[in-house]
Design a protein that fits this description.
Distance between the termini: 31 Å
CATH class: Alpha Beta
Radius of gyration: 19 Å
CATH architecture: Alpha-Beta Barrel
Largest sheet: 6 strands, parallel
CATH topology: TIM Barrel
Number of domains: 1
CATH superfamily: Aldolase class I
Bound molecules: 5'-deoxyadenosine
Order of helices and strands: HHHEEHEHEHEHHEHEHHHEHHE
Strand order of the largest sheet: 2-3-4-5-6-7
Length: 345
Protein backbone atom coordinates (compact mmCIF):
# COMPACT_ATOMS: atom_id res chain seq x y z
CA UNK A 1 0.00 0.00 0.00
CA UNK A 2 2.92 2.33 0.72
CA UNK A 3 4.01 1.66 -2.87
CA UNK A 4 0.67 2.90 -4.12
CA UNK A 5 1.07 6.13 -2.18
CA UNK A 6 4.53 6.53 -3.69
CA UNK A 7 3.15 5.93 -7.15
CA UNK A 8 0.42 8.49 -6.55
CA UNK A 9 2.95 10.95 -5.15
CA UNK A 10 5.26 10.61 -8.15
CA UNK A 11 2.74 10.29 -10.99
CA UNK A 12 -0.40 11.98 -9.64
CA UNK A 13 -2.65 9.06 -10.57
CA UNK A 14 -3.58 5.44 -9.93
CA UNK A 15 -5.71 2.87 -11.71
CA UNK A 16 -9.22 2.25 -10.45
CA UNK A 17 -8.16 -1.01 -8.83
CA UNK A 18 -5.25 0.67 -7.08
CA UNK A 19 -7.42 3.53 -5.90
CA UNK A 20 -9.94 1.09 -4.55
CA UNK A 21 -7.28 -0.76 -2.59
CA UNK A 22 -5.91 2.47 -1.15
CA UNK A 23 -9.32 3.86 -0.23
CA UNK A 24 -10.42 0.62 1.42
CA UNK A 25 -7.23 0.07 3.40
CA UNK A 26 -7.69 1.31 6.93
CA UNK A 27 -4.31 0.94 8.55
CA UNK A 28 -2.88 3.78 10.61
CA UNK A 29 0.54 3.32 9.02
CA UNK A 30 -0.86 3.96 5.55
CA UNK A 31 -2.81 7.00 6.77
CA UNK A 32 0.33 8.43 8.35
CA UNK A 33 2.37 7.96 5.19
CA UNK A 34 -0.34 9.45 3.03
CA UNK A 35 -0.57 12.48 5.35
CA UNK A 36 3.19 12.94 5.18
CA UNK A 37 3.25 12.94 1.37
CA UNK A 38 0.14 15.11 1.12
CA UNK A 39 1.69 17.65 3.49
CA UNK A 40 4.88 17.71 1.45
CA UNK A 41 2.93 18.52 -1.70
CA UNK A 42 0.77 21.20 -0.04
CA UNK A 43 3.94 22.81 1.38
CA UNK A 44 5.61 22.78 -2.02
CA UNK A 45 2.83 24.96 -3.48
CA UNK A 46 1.39 26.83 -0.51
CA UNK A 47 4.03 26.59 2.20
CA UNK A 48 2.52 26.56 5.65
CA UNK A 49 -0.21 29.00 4.75
CA UNK A 50 -3.79 28.41 5.78
CA UNK A 51 -6.36 30.62 4.07
CA UNK A 52 -9.41 31.70 6.01
CA UNK A 53 -12.76 32.21 4.30
CA UNK A 54 -15.48 34.02 6.20
CA UNK A 55 -18.74 32.18 5.66
CA UNK A 56 -21.89 34.30 5.59
CA UNK A 57 -24.99 32.11 5.47
CA UNK A 58 -27.40 34.46 3.75
CA UNK A 59 -30.57 32.36 3.60
CA UNK A 60 -31.94 29.13 5.02
CA UNK A 61 -34.84 29.06 2.55
CA UNK A 62 -34.41 26.39 -0.10
CA UNK A 63 -36.59 25.25 -2.94
CA UNK A 64 -34.74 21.97 -3.18
CA UNK A 65 -35.47 18.83 -1.26
CA UNK A 66 -32.15 16.98 -1.06
CA UNK A 67 -32.78 14.00 1.18
CA UNK A 68 -29.68 14.51 3.32
CA UNK A 69 -29.97 18.21 3.97
CA UNK A 70 -31.45 19.85 7.06
CA UNK A 71 -32.70 22.92 5.19
CA UNK A 72 -34.58 20.90 2.54
CA UNK A 73 -37.96 22.38 1.75
CA UNK A 74 -39.92 19.50 3.31
CA UNK A 75 -38.35 20.04 6.68
CA UNK A 76 -41.17 21.87 8.38
CA UNK A 77 -39.23 22.16 11.63
CA UNK A 78 -36.43 24.15 10.00
CA UNK A 79 -36.50 27.78 11.02
CA UNK A 80 -36.11 29.99 8.00
CA UNK A 81 -34.35 33.34 7.78
CA UNK A 82 -32.83 35.55 5.18
CA UNK A 83 -30.22 38.27 5.73
CA UNK A 84 -30.71 41.70 4.20
CA UNK A 85 -28.03 43.82 2.59
CA UNK A 86 -27.15 45.73 5.74
CA UNK A 87 -26.79 42.51 7.76
CA UNK A 88 -24.55 41.00 5.10
CA UNK A 89 -22.41 44.15 4.98
CA UNK A 90 -22.13 44.12 8.75
CA UNK A 91 -20.92 40.49 8.75
CA UNK A 92 -18.32 41.38 6.13
CA UNK A 93 -17.19 44.48 8.05
CA UNK A 94 -16.73 42.42 11.21
CA UNK A 95 -14.87 39.83 9.18
CA UNK A 96 -12.65 42.40 7.54
CA UNK A 97 -11.62 43.78 10.93
CA UNK A 98 -10.79 40.25 12.04
CA UNK A 99 -8.50 39.86 9.03
CA UNK A 100 -10.68 37.95 6.58
CA UNK A 101 -9.97 38.70 2.91
CA UNK A 102 -12.46 36.26 1.40
CA UNK A 103 -16.19 36.32 2.00
CA UNK A 104 -18.33 33.36 1.04
CA UNK A 105 -22.02 34.04 0.61
CA UNK A 106 -23.74 30.71 0.98
CA UNK A 107 -27.42 29.94 1.06
CA UNK A 108 -30.20 27.60 0.09
CA UNK A 109 -31.72 28.01 -3.35
CA UNK A 110 -33.94 30.88 -2.30
CA UNK A 111 -36.10 32.33 -5.09
CA UNK A 112 -36.18 35.68 -3.28
CA UNK A 113 -32.55 36.14 -4.29
CA UNK A 114 -32.89 36.98 -7.96
CA UNK A 115 -29.77 37.49 -10.09
CA UNK A 116 -30.30 41.26 -9.85
CA UNK A 117 -30.64 41.18 -6.09
CA UNK A 118 -27.48 39.08 -5.66
CA UNK A 119 -25.60 41.32 -8.10
CA UNK A 120 -26.60 44.33 -5.98
CA UNK A 121 -25.03 42.71 -2.92
CA UNK A 122 -21.91 41.73 -4.87
CA UNK A 123 -21.47 45.32 -6.13
CA UNK A 124 -21.71 46.71 -2.61
CA UNK A 125 -19.17 44.21 -1.29
CA UNK A 126 -16.88 44.87 -4.25
CA UNK A 127 -17.01 48.64 -3.66
CA UNK A 128 -16.42 48.43 0.04
CA UNK A 129 -13.80 45.65 0.02
CA UNK A 130 -11.77 46.03 -3.18
CA UNK A 131 -8.96 43.89 -1.76
CA UNK A 132 -11.18 40.93 -0.88
CA UNK A 133 -12.31 37.90 -2.85
CA UNK A 134 -16.05 37.34 -3.13
CA UNK A 135 -17.15 33.73 -3.26
CA UNK A 136 -20.70 32.57 -3.92
CA UNK A 137 -22.28 29.28 -2.92
CA UNK A 138 -25.87 29.69 -4.03
CA UNK A 139 -26.60 26.54 -5.94
CA UNK A 140 -27.72 25.92 -9.49
CA UNK A 141 -28.47 29.06 -11.48
CA UNK A 142 -28.61 29.97 -15.16
CA UNK A 143 -25.48 30.53 -17.25
CA UNK A 144 -26.68 34.09 -17.79
CA UNK A 145 -27.05 34.58 -14.04
CA UNK A 146 -23.54 33.28 -13.42
CA UNK A 147 -22.18 35.71 -16.00
CA UNK A 148 -23.97 38.65 -14.43
CA UNK A 149 -22.58 37.76 -11.01
CA UNK A 150 -19.08 37.50 -12.36
CA UNK A 151 -19.48 40.86 -14.09
CA UNK A 152 -20.76 42.38 -10.82
CA UNK A 153 -17.46 41.45 -9.18
CA UNK A 154 -17.72 37.92 -7.78
CA UNK A 155 -14.52 35.87 -8.07
CA UNK A 156 -15.30 32.34 -7.02
CA UNK A 157 -18.22 29.90 -6.87
CA UNK A 158 -18.69 26.74 -4.85
CA UNK A 159 -21.05 24.03 -6.09
CA UNK A 160 -20.44 20.49 -4.99
CA UNK A 161 -21.42 17.89 -7.54
CA UNK A 162 -22.40 15.74 -4.48
CA UNK A 163 -21.95 12.43 -6.32
CA UNK A 164 -20.88 11.64 -9.87
CA UNK A 165 -22.89 8.43 -10.03
CA UNK A 166 -26.19 9.11 -11.78
CA UNK A 167 -28.09 6.40 -9.88
CA UNK A 168 -26.79 7.50 -6.50
CA UNK A 169 -27.50 11.11 -7.42
CA UNK A 170 -31.15 10.15 -7.94
CA UNK A 171 -31.30 8.42 -4.56
CA UNK A 172 -29.99 11.47 -2.74
CA UNK A 173 -32.01 14.09 -4.59
CA UNK A 174 -35.62 14.79 -5.54
CA UNK A 175 -36.80 13.77 -9.02
CA UNK A 176 -36.61 17.29 -10.43
CA UNK A 177 -32.84 17.48 -9.88
CA UNK A 178 -30.30 15.87 -12.18
CA UNK A 179 -26.60 15.18 -12.24
CA UNK A 180 -26.47 16.43 -15.83
CA UNK A 181 -27.78 19.81 -14.83
CA UNK A 182 -25.38 19.95 -11.90
CA UNK A 183 -22.44 19.19 -14.18
CA UNK A 184 -23.65 21.75 -16.71
CA UNK A 185 -23.71 24.41 -14.02
CA UNK A 186 -20.14 23.51 -13.07
CA UNK A 187 -18.91 23.73 -16.66
CA UNK A 188 -20.72 27.04 -17.07
CA UNK A 189 -19.05 28.39 -13.95
CA UNK A 190 -15.60 27.46 -15.21
CA UNK A 191 -16.40 28.85 -18.64
CA UNK A 192 -17.53 32.11 -17.03
CA UNK A 193 -14.14 32.50 -15.43
CA UNK A 194 -14.99 31.73 -11.82
CA UNK A 195 -12.44 30.02 -9.64
CA UNK A 196 -14.74 27.06 -9.19
CA UNK A 197 -15.10 24.61 -6.35
CA UNK A 198 -16.79 21.24 -6.47
CA UNK A 199 -16.84 18.25 -4.17
CA UNK A 200 -18.86 15.52 -2.52
CA UNK A 201 -19.96 13.99 0.73
CA UNK A 202 -18.07 11.05 2.15
CA UNK A 203 -20.09 8.13 3.49
CA UNK A 204 -23.41 9.27 2.07
CA UNK A 205 -26.15 6.63 2.26
CA UNK A 206 -25.75 3.88 -0.40
CA UNK A 207 -22.31 5.21 -1.43
CA UNK A 208 -19.70 2.61 -2.40
CA UNK A 209 -15.95 2.86 -3.01
CA UNK A 210 -16.66 2.74 -6.74
CA UNK A 211 -18.83 5.83 -6.33
CA UNK A 212 -15.96 7.63 -4.61
CA UNK A 213 -13.70 6.67 -7.50
CA UNK A 214 -16.27 8.13 -9.92
CA UNK A 215 -16.19 11.33 -7.88
CA UNK A 216 -12.42 11.50 -8.19
CA UNK A 217 -12.58 10.78 -11.94
CA UNK A 218 -15.18 13.49 -12.44
CA UNK A 219 -12.98 15.98 -10.56
CA UNK A 220 -10.05 15.03 -12.79
CA UNK A 221 -12.19 15.86 -15.78
CA UNK A 222 -13.54 19.12 -14.35
CA UNK A 223 -10.22 20.33 -12.89
CA UNK A 224 -11.79 22.61 -10.28
CA UNK A 225 -9.77 25.19 -8.34
CA UNK A 226 -11.27 24.16 -5.02
CA UNK A 227 -12.48 20.79 -3.74
CA UNK A 228 -14.77 20.58 -0.73
CA UNK A 229 -15.39 17.20 0.84
CA UNK A 230 -16.79 16.33 4.22
CA UNK A 231 -18.42 13.40 5.95
CA UNK A 232 -22.17 12.93 5.58
CA UNK A 233 -23.75 13.63 8.95
CA UNK A 234 -27.39 12.59 9.47
CA UNK A 235 -29.89 15.31 10.31
CA UNK A 236 -32.75 14.35 12.60
CA UNK A 237 -35.51 15.91 10.50
CA UNK A 238 -34.59 14.30 7.19
CA UNK A 239 -35.40 10.92 5.60
CA UNK A 240 -31.78 9.93 6.28
CA UNK A 241 -32.02 10.49 10.01
CA UNK A 242 -31.29 6.85 10.82
CA UNK A 243 -28.51 6.37 8.29
CA UNK A 244 -24.91 5.96 9.33
CA UNK A 245 -22.66 8.99 8.94
CA UNK A 246 -19.32 9.09 7.12
CA UNK A 247 -16.13 8.66 9.14
CA UNK A 248 -13.23 11.02 9.74
CA UNK A 249 -10.78 8.28 8.75
CA UNK A 250 -12.26 7.82 5.29
CA UNK A 251 -12.60 11.58 4.80
CA UNK A 252 -8.93 12.06 5.68
CA UNK A 253 -7.90 9.21 3.41
CA UNK A 254 -9.67 10.92 0.51
CA UNK A 255 -8.28 14.35 1.38
CA UNK A 256 -4.75 12.94 1.22
CA UNK A 257 -5.44 11.27 -2.12
CA UNK A 258 -6.97 14.48 -3.52
CA UNK A 259 -3.96 16.56 -2.48
CA UNK A 260 -1.65 14.17 -4.33
CA UNK A 261 -3.84 14.19 -7.42
CA UNK A 262 -4.53 17.93 -7.39
CA UNK A 263 -1.32 19.45 -6.03
CA UNK A 264 -2.43 23.09 -6.35
CA UNK A 265 -6.06 22.76 -5.39
CA UNK A 266 -7.53 24.79 -2.54
CA UNK A 267 -8.70 22.16 -0.10
CA UNK A 268 -10.72 23.07 2.98
CA UNK A 269 -10.68 21.18 6.24
CA UNK A 270 -14.46 21.37 6.44
CA UNK A 271 -16.75 22.19 9.32
CA UNK A 272 -18.37 18.76 8.89
CA UNK A 273 -15.00 17.08 9.47
CA UNK A 274 -14.45 19.28 12.53
CA UNK A 275 -17.92 18.35 13.76
CA UNK A 276 -17.45 14.57 13.81
CA UNK A 277 -13.89 14.43 15.15
CA UNK A 278 -12.34 16.28 18.04
CA UNK A 279 -9.29 17.40 16.06
CA UNK A 280 -10.90 16.97 12.68
CA UNK A 281 -9.81 20.25 11.20
CA UNK A 282 -6.26 19.95 12.51
CA UNK A 283 -6.00 16.43 11.11
CA UNK A 284 -7.28 17.81 7.81
CA UNK A 285 -4.55 20.46 7.77
CA UNK A 286 -1.98 17.76 8.39
CA UNK A 287 -3.37 15.72 5.49
CA UNK A 288 -3.07 18.31 2.74
CA UNK A 289 -5.80 20.83 3.55
CA UNK A 290 -4.98 24.54 3.31
CA UNK A 291 -8.30 26.32 3.84
CA UNK A 292 -10.63 26.81 6.82
CA UNK A 293 -14.03 28.47 6.57
CA UNK A 294 -15.12 29.95 9.90
CA UNK A 295 -18.63 31.23 10.33
CA UNK A 296 -19.25 34.98 10.13
CA UNK A 297 -23.05 34.74 10.13
CA UNK A 298 -24.90 36.72 12.80
CA UNK A 299 -25.09 34.70 16.02
CA UNK A 300 -28.91 34.68 16.11
CA UNK A 301 -29.23 32.86 12.78
CA UNK A 302 -26.45 30.31 13.13
CA UNK A 303 -28.48 27.51 14.57
CA UNK A 304 -31.07 27.97 11.84
CA UNK A 305 -28.60 27.16 9.09
CA UNK A 306 -28.51 23.58 10.14
CA UNK A 307 -27.44 21.34 7.30
CA UNK A 308 -26.70 18.46 9.70
CA UNK A 309 -26.91 17.72 13.43
CA UNK A 310 -24.46 19.26 15.91
CA UNK A 311 -22.90 21.54 13.32
CA UNK A 312 -20.02 23.49 14.85
CA UNK A 313 -21.01 27.09 15.22
CA UNK A 314 -17.92 28.47 16.82
CA UNK A 315 -14.77 29.63 15.06
CA UNK A 316 -14.10 33.03 13.64
CA UNK A 317 -17.29 34.56 14.96
CA UNK A 318 -15.58 36.69 17.57
CA UNK A 319 -12.10 38.06 17.98
CA UNK A 320 -11.72 35.51 20.73
CA UNK A 321 -12.91 32.63 18.55
CA UNK A 322 -10.51 33.59 15.83
CA UNK A 323 -7.63 33.82 18.29
CA UNK A 324 -8.41 30.25 19.36
CA UNK A 325 -8.51 29.09 15.77
CA UNK A 326 -5.20 30.81 15.02
CA UNK A 327 -3.66 29.15 18.05
CA UNK A 328 -4.98 25.77 16.86
CA UNK A 329 -3.51 26.34 13.39
CA UNK A 330 -0.14 27.43 14.75
CA UNK A 331 -0.02 24.54 17.15
CA UNK A 332 -0.45 22.22 14.17
CA UNK A 333 2.62 23.88 12.59
CA UNK A 334 0.88 26.16 10.08
CA UNK A 335 0.24 29.88 9.81
CA UNK A 336 -2.82 31.95 9.01
CA UNK A 337 -2.32 33.86 5.75
CA UNK A 338 -3.64 37.42 5.68
CA UNK A 339 -4.35 37.41 1.96
CA UNK A 340 -7.08 36.47 -0.50
CA UNK A 341 -5.58 33.08 -1.15
CA UNK A 342 -6.28 32.65 -4.84
CA UNK A 343 -5.58 29.48 -6.78
CA UNK A 344 -1.96 29.46 -7.93
CA UNK A 345 -1.58 28.48 -11.55
N1 LIG B 1 -24.07 16.11 6.06
C1 LIG B 1 -22.93 16.58 5.53
N2 LIG B 1 -22.89 17.53 4.58
C2 LIG B 1 -24.06 18.01 4.16
N3 LIG B 1 -24.34 18.94 3.22
C3 LIG B 1 -25.67 19.09 3.17
N4 LIG B 1 -26.28 18.28 4.05
C4 LIG B 1 -25.30 17.59 4.66
C5 LIG B 1 -25.27 16.57 5.66
N5 LIG B 1 -26.39 16.10 6.20
C6 LIG B 1 -23.31 19.53 2.37
C7 LIG B 1 -23.63 19.34 0.89
C8 LIG B 1 -23.70 20.77 0.37
C9 LIG B 1 -22.91 21.55 1.39
C10 LIG B 1 -23.22 23.00 1.46
O1 LIG B 1 -23.24 20.92 2.60
O2 LIG B 1 -22.55 18.63 0.26
O3 LIG B 1 -23.16 20.93 -0.92
Amino acid sequence: MINLIEKLYHTGDLTNAELKALIEDDSAEVSAHLAKRADEVRQKYYGKKVFLRGLIEISSYCKNDCLYCGIRRSNKSAERYRLDLSQIMECAENGYKLGFRTFVMQGGEDAFFTDEYICGIISELRKKFPDCAITLSLGERSAVGYRKMKAAGADRYLLRHETANEKLYQKLHPAEMSLDNRKNCLYNLIETGFQTGSGFMVGAPFQTTDDLISDIRFLQELQPHMIGIGPFIPHKDTPFKNEKGGTAELTLRLLGILRLMFPRVLLPATTALGTIAENGRTLGLKTGCNVIMPNLSPKEVRKKYNLYDNKLITGGEAAEGLALLKAEIEKAGYEVADERGDFVD
